[in-house]
Amino acid sequence: MEIFTISPSWLLTASVFFISCMFIYTLRSKRSSMAAPKLPPNPPKLPIIGNLHKLLGKPRHQALWQLSKQYGPIMLLHIGSKPFLIISSPIMAKQVLKTQDHIFCSRPSSKAVKRLTYNYLDIAFSPQSDHRREKRKILVSEFLGPKRARSFNHVLLMEVESMVRFLLLHPPNTEVNLSKMLLATVKEVVCKVGFGKNYREQPIKGSSWEEILDEAVVMLNGSLSDHFPWFGEIFDIIIGWNRRLEKCFSNLDAYIQMIVDDHNNGMIEEISEDEKDFVHRLIELSFNNQLTKEDVKALIMNVFTGGIDTTVVAMEWAIIQKVNELDITKMAYMKMVVKEALRLHSPAPLLIPHESSSHCQIGGYDVFPGTTTVINVWGIGKDPNTWGENAAEFYPERFENLDVDSGGGNFEMLPFGGG
Question: Would you say which domain of life the source belongs to (predicted)?
Answer without folding.
Answer: Eukaryota
